[in-house]
Design goal:
4 helices, Oxidized Rhodanese, domain 1, 106 residues, 5-stranded parallel β-sheet
Length: 106
């Protein structure tokens, strides 16, 4: 008998500085904002806007290939979204470390 462990994958992360480099280099990637509508309207850095509560029903809008950077205000909600989507077969998701709070500081 073979015993296999389903260990959680190590979540990929990107810093605001690294993301700015990707943008400046025109690196291909998709950006997804998982914050609420009012947060998105106050300040955003673009991309697809899918609030956390709509992620599962709108997951077909998120590509399963290529780099996908997900962000929220502090990186907590996007972490949870990535964990959920990874359970559904996504392995290309990257969390913006510190979210919009860190983006505004850097």
């Amino acid at each position: 008998m073979v015993c296999t462990l389903n260990l959680p994958s190590i979540m990929k992360k990107i810093t605001p500085v690294e993301l700015r480099e990707w943008i400046n280099e025109d690196k291909p990637f998709v950006l997804v904002d998982v914050r609420e509508d009012w947060e998105h309207e106050l300040y955003n850095i673009g991309g697809i806007h899918i609030p956390v509560g709509e992620i599962l029903e709108r997951r077909d809008e998120i590509p399963k290939e290529g780099d996908v950077v997900m962000y929220c205000e502090k990186g907590i909600r996007s972490t949870l979204v990535i964990q959920r989507l990874e359970q559904l077969g996504y392995n290309n998701l990257i969390n913006l470390t510190g979210g919009m709070s860190a983006w505004k500081k850097d």
